[in-house]
Design goal:
118 residues, alpha/beta, four-stranded mixed sheet, Immunoglobulin-like, 2 helices, 8 strands
């Protein structure tokens, strides 16, 4: 025996199924608003890469020295300052407020970079 389903019944089942899966617009907004917790800057060949980094407020940025010689990471407004980083050592800072944060290597002042927290 073959069972037929009315169009109204099918539509109601579809709406109920979507509600049970949480497929409403709010679910998509929540997943789109998730932001990365960490970002990386590499120190290599006497430069920071990327030179400019835009991050959401609350992001932790980690600098890793890939050079064979020591470097530092020092913000021009004294918001953060690393110790001297030898090869493969890391320094991290969490940007808890919005702003533009230029920084440089105190050993090699021509090495500069910038983090923009929004």
């Amino acid at each position: 025996m073959r069972r037929s389903v009315s169009t109204a019944g099918l539509a109601a089942a579809l709406v109920l199924g979507m509600g049970a899966l949480g497929a409403g617009p709010k679910s998509f907004e929540a997943s789109a608003q998730q932001k990365p917790a960490t970002m990386e800057v590499k120190i290599d060949n006497f430069s920071f890469g990327p030179v400019e980094l835009m991050v959401p407020v609350g992001t932790t940025v980690t600098w890793t020295n890939r050079d064979d010689i020591p470097h530092t990471v020092v913000s021009t407004d004294k918001a953060f300052k690393s110790k001297v980083l030898d090869t493969d050592e890391k320094f991290s800072y969490t940007f808890s407020k919005a702003g533009t944060f230029p920084y440089f290597c105190s050993i090699h002042p021509k090495m500069t970079g910038k983090v923009i927290a929004q």
